Amino acid sequence: MIYQVYVRSFADSDGDGTGDINGIRSRLPYLADLGVDGLWVNPWYTSPLHDGGYDVADYREINPIYGTLQDARDLIREAHAADIKVIVDLVPNHTSAQHEWFQEAIQSPPNHPSRNRYHIRPGKGTDGSEPPTNWLSVFGGPAWERLPDGEWYLHLFDHTQPDLNWANPEVQDEFRDIFRFWLALGADGFRVDVAHGLAKDMSFPDIPTETEELLVTAKLRNHPFWDRDDVHTYIRQWREVLDASPNNSMMVAEAWVAPERVHLYLRPDEYHQSFAFNFLESSWNPEELTTSIQKALDDAGSVGAVPTWALSNHDVVRHATRYGLPEGVEWRKWLLEGPHDLLDADLGQRRARAAIMLMLALPGSAYLYQGEELGLPEVWDLPEEVLDDPVWEQSGHTTKGRDGCRVPLPWTANGPSFGFGAGPPWLPQPAYFGNLSAANQALDPESMLQLYRSALRLRRALVPASDEIEWLVPHHPKVVAFRRAGGLQCWVNFSRGEIALPDEATVQLMSDPAETDTGKLPPDACVWFN
Ligand code: NOJ
Predict the structure, then answer these.
(1) Is 445 exposed, middle or buried (0-12, 13-18, 19+ CB in 10 A)?
(2) Which protein residue has the closest C-alpha to ligand 1 atom 4?
(3) Which of 7, 40, 54, 94 maximizes ligand 1 atoms within 8 Å of its Cβ, making it the mutation to test the pocket?
(4) Which bin fits 429, alpha (ψ -120 to 50), beta or left (φ > 0)?
(5) Which residues line ligand 1 (CB under 6 A)?
(6) Which of 48, 63, 174, 221 is buried deepest, with most CB atoms within 10 A?
(7) Which residues are identified as catalytic?
């Protein structure tokens, strides 16, 4: 299991309100105790942090607010000593506007070679005052920004994140070198940001405008900037670099593509893993979840791979909150628009306990997002004045953004930032975070933290290496059940009543601890038995 560390919000060692590398080092015993095999560390490079560090100004330096390259080396060494691997986050689709390449480009005249590292083009209309295409930014508004000299640059995300021109061999060479740099530092793997981006249709066509969704998702075939065939050329270049290194390293794709296209990224000479985002996005609904699981298994299986599962990450509403909302509520919109009394927080917690057991019983790899082991909900009521996510501004205050899942972790029940650091944290924590702190939960045998610890321990012991999964004919339409090689069964009850377990079942773990010995599986609960 890989544990995702959002550095800024994990642990602050120097009291400046921002998490840092030494904070991660100080919590390695906690992570080892939880049972993690590896860490995925969100971007830690020099950056003005206009998009939480996904705006990289220098790919070979650590942001001073997080520490130094030596701290990174020390973290990797100490993690290895604790048998924990370290995956770094690489951002190849765009740089920060502060990157020296972009600075050089905008200080150079049109047609200068330095401009060809980005997509910088004249606009449309007689005076060039219209953007070159109708493409929209994922964060809202047009994907083009005009420079003082009249040309436009492409940014699929924030206007401070200009897109690189991957058709330029110089860009390709630079990234192969950046991979080598982090491999030399000891990295065991790479999470690749916007893995379905990079390649652009260099004829720059407009997108048909039937629906706005088409403009920003990869659902359109032959989309001018998502999931294009050329991207696989670059992926293979990186894979060659990885395979040539002695680190035995891997890479995992953040590719938001249709489930039936994930396998393209998982071919033997491409990524080792690619997230099954359709599973993450499924509602708490047996048909939807089973279909998403089977699709991911089939698609990855078609190239001899297995899916990669996650329930949460730093870009989505935390699942303890999503599962507490009625089915059909669009959670990103709900953050701002509500109605907030639709949320049943207890139900969300109950389902989150069942969901992690379901996920950890599946074949494939599993990623956890920091704080989900504490059952942290989305902090949906952050006041507007503290919002930091560029989505808030770029969407003209119509989308609240992702700050609510990035609130610093509570380690202790009290203290200025519940043990996160010695002073106030960069985003305010709600008062109830104290109760959810790791220290409190360590003392409670029925806490979410203890469930995660038990589930991860049992997963190592009971879940087989073989990828086989046998769906069991449901004896109730609202029960999802499967068996793994070796006999472990996993059942989830989506019905409104209790379900009897087979007489001979030996329960290994139940998400509702009060029911472990009753021979029954209550609603919204999961059991592992053999
Ligand atoms: C995906 C990252 O996970 C997200 O946080 C970021 O804003 C975009 N890519 C742009 O880099």
Answers:
(1) exposed
(2) 315
(3) 54
(4) beta
(5) 51-52, 54, 91, 157, 193-194, 254, 314-315
(6) 63
(7) 193, 254
Calpha distance 35→37 (Å, rounded): 7
Looking at 91-206, which runs of residues are DSSP E strands? 120-121, 144-146, 152-154, 189-192
Ligand 1, atom 5, residue with closest C-alpha:
315
DSSP conformation class of 282: -
CA 54–ligand 1 middle distance (angstroms): 6
The reported pLDDT for the residue numbered 463 is: 86
pLDDT value at residue 209: 73
**Atom of ligand 1 lying closest to residue 194 CA:** 9
Give the domain 100-154 fold: Oligo-1,6-glucosidase; domain 2 (3.90.400)
> Could you name the CATH architecture of 469-529?
Sandwich (2.60)
Closest by CA to 49, choosing from 4, 87, 97, 106, is 97
Helix (H, G, I), strand (E, B) or coil at 295: helix
The answer for residues whose C-beta is within 8 angstroms of residue 100's C-beta and 6 or more apart is 57, 58
The pLDDT confidence band at residue 212, using thresholds 50, 70 and 90, is: low
What CATH superfamily is the domain 2-95+168-448? Glycosidases (3.20.20.80)
Query: The tokens of 184 are what?
Result: 């030399």
Query: Of all residues in the chain, what percent carry a pLDDT higher than 70?
Result: 98
Could you check whether the bond before residue 131 is cis, i.e. omega within 30 degrees of 0?
no
Annotated domain spans of the chain: 2-95+168-448, 100-154, 469-529
**Tens digit of each residue's pLDDT (9 = 90 or more) over 65-84:** 999 999 999 999 999 999 99
Residue whose CB lies within 8 A of the most ligand 1 atoms, among 6, 156, 193, for a mutation test: 193
Provide DSSP, 422-464. Answer: SS--SSPPPGGGTTT-HHHHHT-TTSHHHHHHHHHHHHHHHS-
